[in-house]
Fold this protein.
Amino acid sequence: MNMSADAEFDGLVAIVTGGASGIGAAAADRLAAGGAQVAVLDLNPAGTAHFGVECNVADDASVRAAVESVTNRFGRLDIVVNNAGIGAAGDVAANEDDEWTRVLDINVVGVARVTRAALPHLRRSPSAAIVNTCSIAATAGLPQRALYSASKGAVLSLTLAMAADHIREGIRVNCVNPGTVDTPWVARLLSSAADPEAERAALNARQPHGRLVSAEEVAGAIAYLASPRSGSTSGTALAVDGGMQGLRLRPL
Ligand code: NAD
């Protein structure tokens, strides 16, 4: 296999869920730049430059059909980036059962569903890798993010369990733990503030390195964990947070 960085994914096929926006879009672009054929599975894939497949990770039939359309199109599957996710605000009492079920179904069971559909194909790959987009919320103890934190804690645990289950099959499983990333998601949160520009400046100031993480920086970490360059790495969580986790700081 060619190990040079600019062609490290030549001949490989990747799925990126939630790949039409933000971190997922940057990851899809980064994998394609490295030579991968990339399928974007998203609720709304219309704007993607890659092979877009409409898919709801909360719907098993939708996930199975989407994975099948990718393997029908490209004949193989080597890399899965489980990135689709949604937010939830408030303390533990802020959300009723239906919202807990909805968020966990997308953020946690969505990872399991896509992986379950992908596994038979990944087992045939000589270079299989799964990268889950987790969050510093998994371990930071963020205020006013109880449900979201619980969902990302489960993604971290699932990453470790999947890594143990599948390493003997040659499938590596890792996750990235981003801090606060400059994506449409964060732009939506900022736009609801009374003074979005002042809120953005305050958010920047709360980051150890004085700015938000870029989606491309997270995509670089995802690409590393997806590539043969990390061929002996499985069951890790790579922080991309400006040093926040190392400093035991919280973004809020
Ligand atoms: P985003 O809102 O910009 O993009 C999310 C994408 O996921 C969208 O294209 C959306 O259509 C898609 N999506 C949502 N629900 C889906 C579903 N049920 N099925 C398929 N696709 C679905 O968000 P982002 O900021 O790029 O976040 C992406 C991931 O990164 C999420 O898992 C999020 O939890 C995680 N994350 C984000 C940040 C941040 O600060 N932005 C920090 C840590 C972790």
